[in-house]
Amino acid sequence: MNQNQEKQNAALAALDYIQYECILGVGSGSTVTSLIQNLKKVKHNIKALVSSSEDTTDKLKHAGFVVDELSNVGSPDLYIDGADEVTRNFYMTKGGGGALTREKILVAASRKIICIVDSSKIVDVLGKYPLPIEVIPMAKSYISREIIRLGGQPELRHNFVTDNGNFILDVHNLTIVDPPQLEKQINNIAGVVTNGIFAIKPADVVLIGQSNGVLTLENR
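Structure (tokenized):
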């Protein structure tokens, strides 16, 4: 079974968590695109929708949904998103598409976090995939020097500006042994908006698409 089918399996499994009167936060990326394509099946259960990116908002509107502002809906009951990497400790890295800041805001605001991924995204240690950091443009050189001191190799994502008007540094060769600590450490660098480690508030459920269905991991 191919990767696209695994993503579809994970996305379909997430629909079962969308219960009556749900205020739903929707992430971004290819697995979330599969979710959006099937979201009409549970439209009757959705009270309100909020989105993590302009791209997701456009896809939701195209699918016939009204997208609200987070300030209008309060705390989403559920936030569903993919990940670049996720461990069996429910720690994630995200931001390959550049929407990490709005994703992190929705994670912080939501009551329950569901991560939907194909089986290739499960890792023992985070860091094989480059870690994105959203930075204030004037601080990019300073932050790059600080990241080098931490052992990473930062690279400016060329010809890319986030929905918030900022830049992305993609950090290579950074082995993330203590995700919560490194998340805090990088966020404390002046000029960092946020980084792509999601460990201070990890996933509650990880749905892993597989060839024979879906493996469910629950963070108890």
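The domain at 131-196 is CATH 3.30.70.260 (Alpha-Beta Plaits). The longest strand covers residues 46-51.
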